[in-house]
Amino acid sequence: MQRISILLCLLLSCNFVQASTGIEDNIADVASWVILLVLPLAGIYLFWKVHIYPEKVAEKKNHPQLNAIKSMCLLSLVFGGLLWPVALIWANYDYGNQNQSKNDPDIPKEQEEENLNTIEN
Phi-psi category of 62—alpha, beta or left, where left has phi over 0 and alpha has psi -120 to 50? Predict the structure, then answer.
């Protein structure tokens, strides 16, 4: 580490590098402004889109607890993304098997009652 710092000091103190006045300066100026302005905005946008992804999944699946998932996504923004994996798992959880027997019109009432009796016993 000490050798690297000495080498850097020597390189910076040398007069090998001279300022250019050509087109390279203009390109460097534009590139630096792009890096300073555009990349942070793109990073914030990407961070936002990733954090609302569980909400979009829940809306697409017509999740019964959509409002709670939306709240967890917003809380995840505040807490630095710690709740985001929980919101993503929750949004992808399928509640279809639990409500299938209640909403399935193909199963007759007698068979449904027999299924409930066998579950209770």
Answer: left
d(CA 9, CA 46): 38
Q: Are 65 and 98 in contact (CB under 8 A)?
A: no
- Quote the CA–CA distance of 119 and 92 in Å, as a whole number: 27
Which regions in the chain score pLDDT beneath 50? none
Element (H, E) at 10: helix 2-13
Q: By C-alpha distance, which of 41, 46, 45, 63 is closest to 54? A: 63
User: CB of 83 within 8 A of CB of 75?
Assistant: yes
Buried b (16+ CB within 10 A) or exposed e, 60-96: eeebeeeeebbebbeebeeeeeebbeebbebbeeeee
- State pLDDT tens for residues 31-61: 999 899 999 999 999 988 998 999 999 999 9
